[in-house]
Design brief:
The complex is a heterotrimer.
Chain A: H1 2-22, H2 26-46, H3 50-74, H4 86-108, H5 124-132, H6 136-157
Helix pairs in contact in A: 1-2, 2-3
Chain B: H1 3-40, H2 56-66, H3 77-93, H4 131-141, H5 143-152, H6 156-187, H7 192-201, H8 209-222, H9 234-237, H10 247-272, H11 288-313, H12 321-349
Helix pairs in contact in B: 1-10, 1-11, 2-10, 3-5, 3-10, 5-6, 6-8, 6-12, 8-12, 10-11
Chain C: H1 6-9, H2 14-32, H3 39-58, E1 64-66, E2 71-73, H4 75-99, H5 106-125, H6 129-147, H7 154-185, H8 190-199, H9 204-222, H10 230-237, H11 240-266, H12 277-282, H13 284-304, H14 309-330, H15 333-364, H16 375-378, H17 380-394, H18 400-414, H19 418-443, H20 457-475, H21 478-487
Antiparallel strand pairs in C: 1-2
Helix pairs in contact in C: 2-3, 2-5, 3-4, 3-5, 4-5, 4-11, 4-15, 5-6, 5-11, 6-7, 6-11, 7-9, 7-10, 8-11, 9-11, 10-11, 10-14, 11-14, 11-15, 13-14, 13-19, 14-15, 14-18, 14-19, 15-17, 15-18, 15-20, 17-19, 17-20, 18-20
The chains are: A mainly alpha, B mainly alpha, C mainly alpha.
């Protein structure tokens, strides 16, 4: 049962991700990306990471992708026609080779690093405890990254006085 | 019959109940809105169909279904067809986490067909431990219906409506989420069942009035109701994001709007007015009757807020776009942040009052 | 093993905290300073660098893993912190002399420099895959913004965009690699990964692949081949003080991270003599030999045909990364010492070279080599310091660069990598040609105009300090070398 749900979600995630990069219309790409995020959230639920799944939807699907759509629609981007370039094929072949090279290590990975019975439930309590003890440092670093990214965005968009 | 099947049956029954309540509720709310607006404007409103107009919404529904379904040539077909569905789904999904009545104790429910060994029956479809986050995330994806619909129609008024809707949703999601954080702080849990329980044992969270106020305003914005209905505002944008929808597709937008109204009211009640809690009454005291009373009280509380929504709509003028942004970012956001901090400080100072 | 909790770790990261406070204070100072008096912001930033430097000198903490193993603090880390703080301070000074003439929003600029320095400090202390990724991300994001700081300049915007694209790609590759390594070992902490690898056998293919991808992420910061393509465009397009900073601080941070990653993951031997078999299996030494030869050859050969001085210096910095990578492939304590020594000398000579280029290009409004013609009459002092820096970059005695190269080659000879050493020497010879082109333009060719280049006291002082260190470390290098030897105790827990 769980495996079946996983396969459905995984196929949905990967096929929408392929649509994202093959689709010529930017709006379709964005919508496909949203569906990828939903499939990912489903996979998180299968992994007991409820908190992460909900945050994934609220933040990525609900806020960031809406902003993407907003910008795409505001610029009124029509379908993009790319110049056909033979280099694209080389890039594609190399990319596929990379994907396969990535696939093999995945099968080598130790499957039972964490036994299923010991898998912690990813609810707000557990995440909060870990986030404010062992992972408090990366958490604070993330705040600096966000601060500086905000400053950067303002630097780039502010009109010169 | 094993526990799994029992669970399944009761879950299906609960889903059926919530959906019926929401959809029937929508027809009633539409009628109430029309009659009440008529009262405010000194008219009569629809009062002929069935018993004093009770059947008006059903008649309108039949009309919408049998009308010709026009799909204009210039639209983006796939997105155009998807949009009403995407609009409708989150509106109905939200009901899944709302507790709509007191728990039925195991001894009380006698359903011979299903076996007598049933445990306590929680009147809530899914008591997930991240219920509040579920609410926040499902509300936030509600905007996709509007945005997709507005874009797919390929005309500038609809697009403008969609643009306004997406900006508005993102702006008001922050105060919404932050005011909910204050509630979570007081309840000590993200689970809605737990939040209602805490209020039942202590006091209603309406005592945290700033959080309630921010939440209420943000919910108005998230449901696109006046004074925040910039996405459709008929004087400027024809009908905004659903200009070129006809027949039942238009009906679904309408349905979703009013379904959102009901679920949002249910959330206001759950978070700030004790949910199904009947004041000064022990719901478990009189068995099934007490539970029934709690469900009815919950419905009454919801009706009050639906009434408030309608009242506001017919009393206030619409915001201008810059006023909307100003209110969201420069007023509500700081207030909600202050609320979170203030609640946390009070929680520490008066620790003994809680839990 | 001495692993501290969050609260216990706070005294260990005092410089980082001072820099973080500095970021906020600089924003506030910028907010309240009105009008043209923008130099105050730069002075504030410099004061915070100074404070961090002082706090580093006065504090003496025993080596430990901090924040439950997220960071490591030891003498190597402390030494690198000196390098980063110095380069941040120098970048601030150069920027103050550059940006006075332009109307540029300086508050954010100095805050960004402070943040970039903070990121490099964190990079050198990271002992956990998570912290590695995040600290690299801080440095990267700040770099994207700094590269595009001249918004009205198309080249600057182009530099920023290229940087973002390459950076996003290599961050992604690195995170994939980290996730595979985590999947193989179930650990994020580098030392725990070492314990796992030492006691269990994992698939060589998967391990090689993951380590290669992590090296890709680090390699992008160091700009080693084949991750160097962004480097010339970004250096050319960025404001010159920023390019100078890029060519030193993130590069040094990348090398410190590389040293830390390799040593923590593959050994627990303080002398760096015994490595676990996994290192041999994935052929790390061979990988670095190939990479270093590729990097220095590409850097040097491409630099030969450049006419833009900033671009030339960019390729030269790629070549220098290649030299230092030779030290990594020695996989010994002496190799590591040589790298640290080389980085220290590189700090002074490269900043010096960029500073003179910045000064001249600001005055004569050109970054091409012909703008340097006849500089011996137009600006005799700057021409002299430039010659010092160029000679040091080439590796001619008695400059600091010579000593650095000497240490590197002797480390190679120690590790019996004679062929690599010969290739390195050949490359140094090639580099002589293009450095000589600038020197020839300055001394042997006639100036286009006889007009003197205006001399500013502060800038002259800075140039002479940098040149002074470049010469001093070439003659009297023993104290530094002893200091580095004492600092080379890597903490393994």
């Amino acid at each position: 049962m769980e495996l079946a749900i996983f396969i459905v979600l995984a196929v949905l995630a990967i096929s929408s991700a392929v649509v994202v990069i093959t689709q010529k219309s930017p709006v379709y790409s964005v919508l496909a990306l949203v569906s990828t995020f939903f499939a990912l959230a489903g996979i998180y639920v299968l992994l007991n990471a409820y908190f992460l799944a909900m945050i994934q939807i609220a933040v990525y699907a609900g806020a960031i992708m809406v902003l993407f759509l907003f910008v795409v629609m505001l610029l009124n981007l029509k379908e993009q026609y790319y110049v056909e370039n033979p280099k694209k094929i080389i890039g594609g072949v190399l990319g596929l080779a990379f994907v396969f090279a990535l696939l093999f290590p995945i099968f080598e990975i130790e499957k039972n690093l964490v036994p299923e019975s010991q898998m912690p439930v990813g609810d707000a309590y557990n995440i909060g405890i870990r986030l404010f003890t062992d992972y408090v440092f990366p958490f604070e670093i993330a705040s600096i990254i966000l601060l500086i990214a905000t400053v950067g965005a303002i630097v780039f968009t502010k009109k010169h006085s | 019959m094993d526990a799994f099947t029992q669970n399944l049956i009761f879950t299906v029954l609960k889903i059926a109940f919530v959906l019926t309540f929401t959809l029937l509720g929508v027809t009633m709310v539409i009628l109430a809105e029309r009659r009440f607006s008529a009262f405010i404007q000194d008219r009569l409103g629809p009062n002929r169909t069935w018993f004093g107009g009770l059947g008006q919404s059903f008649a309108d529904g039949i009309k919408l279904i049998v009308k010709e379904d026009v799909i204009p040539n210039h639209v983006d077909r796939l997105v155009y067809l998807l949009a009403p569905v995407v609009m409708m789904t989150p509106a109905l999904m939200i009901g899944a986490v709302i507790p709509f009545g007191a728990t039925i104790p195991s001894g009380e429910l006698w359903l011979p067909l299903l076996g007598a060994n049933l445990e306590n029956l929680v009147l809530q479809i899914a008591n997930i431990n991240v219920g509040i986050l579920y609410f926040v995330s499902v509300t936030s994806i509600g905007v996709y219906g509007i945005v997709m619909g507005g874009w797919a129609q390929n005309n500038k008024y609809s697009l403008l409506g969609a643009l306004r809707a997406s900006a508005q949703m993102i702006s008001y999601e922050l105060p919404l989420g932050l005011s909910v954080v204050a509630v979570v702080l007081m309840a000590g849990s993200l689970s809605l069942g737990e939040i209602v329980k805490v209020q039942q044992e202590g006091f209603w969270f309406i005592l945290n009035f700033p959080a309630f106020l921010v939440f209420l305003i943000a919910v108005f914005a998230e449901t696109n109701r006046l004074p925040f209905d910039l996405a459709e505002c008929e004087q400027e944008l024809v009908a905004g994001y659903h200009t070129e929808y006809s027949s039942m597709k238009f009906g679904m937008f309408l349905l979703a709007e009013y379904a959102n109204l009901i679920t949002s009211s249910a959330f206001i009640v759950t978070l700030f007015f004790g949910g199904w809690d009947v004041p000064f009454y022990d719901e478990t005291a009189h068995g099934l009757a007490g539970v029934l009373l709690s469900v009815i009280v919950f419905a009454i509380k919801i009706s009050f807020f639906v009434f408030l929504f309608i009242w506001v709509r017919w009393s206030l003028p619409r915001f201008r776009y810059d006023q909307l942004m100003h209110l969201g970012w420069k007023r509500l956001l700081p207030i909600s942040l202050a609320t979170v901090v203030g609640t946390a400080i009070l929680m520490v100072l008066f620790k003994d009052l809680y839990h | 093993m001495n692993t501290l909790t969050a609260l216990q770790s706070v005294p260990y990261i005092l410089p980082e905290i001072i820099l973080a406070v500095g970021i906020c204070v600089v924003f506030l100072v910028d907010l309240f300073i009105k009008g043209e008096n923008k130099e105050t912001v730069g002075i504030t930033a410099f004061a915070f660098f100074l404070a961090a430097f002082v706090s580093l000198t006065v504090s003496s903490n025993p080596p430990a893993f901090l924040f439950s193993g997220m960071l490591v603090s030891d003498s190597l880390n402390t030494y690198f912190k000196y390098i980063f703080l110095t380069s941040g301070a120098i970048a601030t000074l150069i920027s103050m002399s550059t940006f006075t003439s332009r109307k540029i929003n300086s508050g954010e600029y100095y805050a960004l420099i402070l943040t970039a320095t903070l990121g490099t400090l964190l990079m050198s202390g990271s002992s956990n895959l998570l912290t590695i990724a995040m600290s690299i991300e801080i440095v990267s994001i700040v770099s994207y913004v700094l590269a595009g700081y001249n918004k009205e300049n198309m080249e600057s915007s182009e530099a920023s965009l290229k940087y973002v694209l390459y950076g996003a790609m290599s961050s992604g590759i690195m995170l994939y690699g980290a996730s595979i390594l985590y999947g193989l070992t179930g650990k994020l902490n580098l030392h725990e990964i070492y314990i796992f690898l030492a006691n269990n056998s994992v698939s060589t293919y998967a391990l090689t692949f993951s380590v290669l991808m992590i090296l890709g992420g680090i390699g992008y910061k160091i700009a080693f081949a084949p991750f160097h393509f962004w480097c010339p465009d970004v250096y050319q397009g960025s404001p010159t003080p920023v390019a100078a900073f890029f060519s030193v601080a993130p590069k040094a941070a990348g090398f410190s991270l590389l040293l830390r990653f390799i040593s923590l993951t593959f050994t627990n031997d303080v002398t760096l003599a015994n490595w676990i078999p996994a290192l041999e299996e994935i052929g790390l030494r061979e990988i670095f030999i190939v990479v270093s030869v590729l990097t220095m050859t590409i850097g040097n050969l491409s630099a030969l045909s450049q006419t833009n001085v900033k671009r030339l210096l960019a390729y030269s910095s790629i070549a220098h990364a290649g030299y230092m990578l030779m030290g990594i492939s020695a996989l010994s304590l002496r190799g590591a010492e040589a790298i640290v020594f080389y980085l220290t000398t590189y700090l002074f000579m490269n900043f010096g070279a960029f500073f003179v280029v910045d000064y001249i290009s600001k005055k004569v409004k050109s970054e091409e080599i012909y703008a340097f013609k006849g500089l011996k009459t137009r600006a005799p002092f700057l021409a002299f310091t430039m010659t010092v820096f160029l000679a040091s970059l080439t590796g001619l005695p008695p400059m600091a660069g010579f000593v650095g190269k000497f240490y590197l080659f002797s480390a190679l000879a120690d590790a019996k990598l004679y062929l690599l050493a010969v290739l390195g020497l050949l490359n140094s010879v090639v580099s002589l040609f293009y450095y000589w082109r600038i020197a020839r333009a300055m001394y042997l060719e006639d100036a286009l105009t006889g007009e003197k280049v205006e001399f500013e006291l502060g800038s002259g002082l800075l140039a002479s300090v940098l040149a002074g260190f470049t010469i001093l470390l070439g003659i009297y290098f023993n104290p530094l070398s002893v200091w580095i030897q004492n600092s080379m105790t890597i903490y393994f827990g």
